[in-house]
Amino acid sequence: MDTDTDDTPGCYYNQSVRFFYEASGKNISTHWRDRDYVIVTLGMAVCFIVIFSNLLVMAAIFKNRRFHFPIYYLLGNLAVADLFSGLSYLHMMFHTGPWTIRLSKYGWFLRQSLIDTSLTASVLNLLAVAVERHQTIFNMQLHSKMSTRRVFVIIVFIWLLAILLGLVPTMGWHCLCDLDSCSTMAPMYSRSYLVFWAVLNLVTFSVMLAVYTRIFVYVRHKSQQMSQHTSQMRHRDTVFNLMKTVSMILGCFVMCWTPALVVLLLDGLGCERCKVLRYEKYCLVLAECNSFVNPIIYSFRDKDMRRTFKEILCFLCRRQDRDKIPSSGVHFNTMEHENCKSRTADPQLSSTNGTPLIHRQEAPPPSET
């Protein structure tokens, strides 16, 4: 592609990106409009939020030992996929609008492949989480007994498969030799590839929804059979809370990405009356917003995750506050520090946790008989 040799008969390897856009009916603006500035500015702002929030999730999972379990490793890998998605969209923001004309065909395929790879990695991660939850809960466990090595093998497999599917159009499933099969939304992608990619993801969504529905039915049925023993009730509540968190992540992912996949499917099927270009940007923004939804879900659903977020964000502030606290201060980090400080200040208060609210009075001497 993009060579100075003559085109192969019937193929257009040496044509510019603009040629394919014009052939498919998707116009490229040659100058920057106010709308382009707004889209790029908002897009870059969202990308930075996505990158920061998912770095925070990854740091929290790494920092807190309570998250060192297979389910959290997979959720951490989902954060890596969302981080990669943010970087992919940030790359697109610098190669969109009038900048699209300057792209080589290799550059255009790279831009699209990055986004395809990030979505595929997210879908495969969610599928792995669904399988892990199914296996764990049906064995009446809170966390899987899967080894760390096996988890990392699964993670590596997810990324290899995601990269492979992202590179499929570059390796030959394109329309450079068949202009009639070119997509409207992605002018160098074949319509058949868009149909394959959209149907594959929609089917995967359906499978995951079916798996989670079965898990919820099973958990609800089991919870009714449990006794009212405290440990069993706590275990059930913990399982339910974790399941709700994971299900909310899946539900938001499906809601954010399904419109984009449906639009791609309609474009792949050649629906001329659907006017897919009218809804393309809105669907893309909705799909992009999904990448920072997961950290919000973690914050509201998982107390340990929320507390770890606060510890990371407030680390510098708390360090500065500790430096400013005088030696006679009354702020304590732990109960042991408080007891130690109390015993040092007044031995008579060693049995209390801080300053007593009621002062003891000495008993009067016994009367002489």
From TrEMBL:
Report domain G-protein coupled receptors family 1 profile positions: 53-298
Is the keyword Coiled coil assigned to this protein? no
Could you tell me the keywords of this UniProt record?
A: Cell membrane, Disulfide bond, Endosome, G-protein coupled receptor, Glycoprotein, Membrane, Receptor, Transducer, Transmembrane, Transmembrane helix
Q: Where is the composition biased (Polar residues)?
A: 345-355
Q: Which GO terms describe its molecular function?
A: lysophosphatidic acid receptor activity
Q: Which GO terms describe its cellular component?
A: cell surface; endosome; plasma membrane
Where is the segment annotated Disordered? Answer: 338-369
Query: Main site of residence?
Result: membrane
The protein's location, in the record's own words, is: Cell membrane; Cell surface; Endosome
Q: Which family does it belong to?
A: Belongs to the G-protein coupled receptor 1 family.
Record-linked PANTHER family: G-PROTEIN COUPLED RECEPTOR
The name this protein carries in UniProt is G-protein coupled receptors family 1 profile domain-containing protein
Give the organism's phylogenetic lineage.
Answer: Eukaryota, Metazoa, Chordata, Craniata, Vertebrata
